[in-house]
Fold this protein.
Amino acid sequence: MDLKIIENVRIPLSGDEVQAAAVWIRSGKIARVELGESTRPSGEYERIDGNGCLLIPGMIDVHIHGANGFDMMDGSEESIQEVSRACAATGCTSFLATSVSSSMEDLLAMIRSVKRVVGNETGARIAGLHLEGPYLNPKRKGMQNEKFLRHPDLEEMELVFREAEGLIKMVTIAPELPGGMELIAYLREKDVVIAIAHSDATYEEAKQAFEAGASHVTHCFNGMRPIHHRDPGVVVAAFEEAHVSLQAIVDGIHLHPAIVRMMHRLKGADGMVLITDALQAMGLGDGEYIFGGHQVQVVDGVARLKDGTLASSTVTMNEALRLAVEAGIPLSDGVRMASATPARILGLDNLGSLATGYDADLVLLNDRFEVEWTMINGELFRV
């Protein structure tokens, strides 16, 4: 049957308000959204009972490195597919496969593995690549491996873009490095999202980068010059620029809830994006891992290097949404930050909304924000 009707669900409206609804799906697209009592078609259709749960647009993670013990930097298709499945199981229907700073050989291997999987994903769809590095500042390296950090090299970048064949959608850089502004000009021509992080840029340097074409801040507050009343840095510069959006790792570790609320007050749901920044420990939990060439220990769900440096996260998108709401973000805004806003930033015009004509990428969440099922392109992916 071509027609599916998801009945007995609640959908977010504004603030924390929800409304009983039914959603009609035809040929992988949302054909109708009915509030209140739903009508029944005369012909045959497949009925899907939502059991009164919350139905939201599929979430989009613009920053994820691994899951379920698999690191996407290992160059294998298996790792990409495992992350695709893990994303789908946790309410994420599209994602950017994200690199860490590495050798050129390892970066190209990762890109090739992603290319082989695109279009054949077994779970969430790959929306493209996010290159986090290697043009980052050692002073703010965080968990990035310093031996792979280097100054921007346009010839090297051109090689990477040729190999990626249009898949690169976001690049995170430190604009204050020698050649940083030239790199921004190059990336602007490539029409990718230019993000700042692992950066010691001053307020003035960040403003210059934003004026030149940078429009995003990766894992805001983490891996950058902190705010000081005489040295405001990247974060304050980003707050002042209306076109600049911010990533937030809402895991209860990387950002205090008060900071999450402040980011939301200053940027709103249209300027803030929930991410996982997850490493391969996502889905497995505590233990020892190798990530970015470092030994990482996860204790009580928190990943750190031996020196105590935070090393990505283990949070999932559904958990990030729950924690955002618990921090005081209205439900509708939290959903927007996880779906519509990343879709808009990436130019995915067919994703991120419960509206007629959009792709039927949907997630059903219970009252604890646990995923009951995920729908991708109108087909159920059961957890």
Q: What stands out?
A: The radius of gyration is 20 Å.
